[in-house]
Write a structure and sequence with these properties.
Elements: E1 3-6, H1 10-22, E2 28-31, H2 34-38, E3 48-52, H3 60-70, E4 75-80, H4 86-89, E5 94-99, H5 104-121, E6 123-125, E7 131-133, E8 137-143, E9 146-151, E10 156-159, H6 163-169, E11 175-179, E12 182-185, E13 189-193, E14 196-199, E15 203-206, H7 212-228
Helix pairs in contact: 1-5
């Protein structure tokens, strides 16, 4: 996971760097202003950004609004002493608010939560033309030489990779096989009923008997991770 730290105070940047290192993350990049951050050529590579709200030039709120357009998969953790600005700081890509002076424990907890959420919003490259957030995928189904991705909006996208290849590629993103020809996203799994797997959106798929126990185990693990990182 790549972490950005944007703060116009050098001491606070260094402190955050130490907290990140202590949490086991050394892939960090630093910015002393919003302009410097927004000009960063590898902006979309940032998974998590610790962002000071009150800075000269564009403040944290303005930077957040720009990031949603330029790098929507970057999660933001605001760092501030200005509680009065919190109402404007909420956003779809904002995952945490940290009060200064910062706590190493809370920084580590924020990093852990970001690492978990990245799996939901990580872009999956289905083919040369299609890049989608992991969370938008309902299930995959094998059809002849292709794998068909079924999306939340009802659209389908085909891939020349086999389902076996996708099963291996998506194993860390909370996907689970329910038969030899179908792989579901556990984020959209509701329950099992009458030898069918029920997904959100009214989708049902056949559940092969030998996949019942692995599905139960995978879903229990997923729910435990969800509880720990909520």
């Amino acid at each position: 996971m790549k972490i950005g730290i944007c703060d116009d105070n050098e001491m606070e940047r260094e402190q955050l760097k130490k907290f990140c290192l202590k949490a086991g993350y050394d892939d960090t990049v630093f910015f002393s202003s919003g302009e410097e951050l927004l000009e960063y050529e590898e902006l979309t590579s940032l998974n998590l950004l610790f962002l000071d709200i009150e800075m000269e030039g564009p403040n944290g709120i303005e930077i957040k609004n720009n990031l949603w357009r330029l790098s929507p998969f970057t999660r933001i953790a605001f760092c501030t002493t200005h509680q009065e600005m919190m109402a404007d700081a909420f956003g779809q890509n904002v995952i945490s608010f940290l009060n200064k002076p910062l706590s190493g424990h809370l920084v580590a907890r924020c990093i852990k939560r970001a690492a978990f959420l990245i799996k939901d919003f990580s872009p999956i490259s289905i083919n040369e033309k299609t890049l989608v957030p992991c969370n938008d995928i309902l299930y995959l189904q094998s059809e002849q030489k292709y794998t068909i991705f079924h999306m939340r909006d009802g659209e389908t996208v085909s891939s020349r990779k086999t389902l076996k290849e996708w099963t291996k590629e998506l194993e860390t993103f909370d996907f689970c096989a329910v038969s030899r020809s179908a792989l579901i996203n556990l984020k959209h799994y509701k329950k099992t009923e009458n030898k069918q797997v029920l997904l959100h959106g009214g989708i049902s798929l056949p559940l092969s008997r030998r996949f019942v126990r692995p599905l139960e185990k995978a879903f229990d693990t997923y729910m435990l991770s969800l509880a720990r990182n909520s």
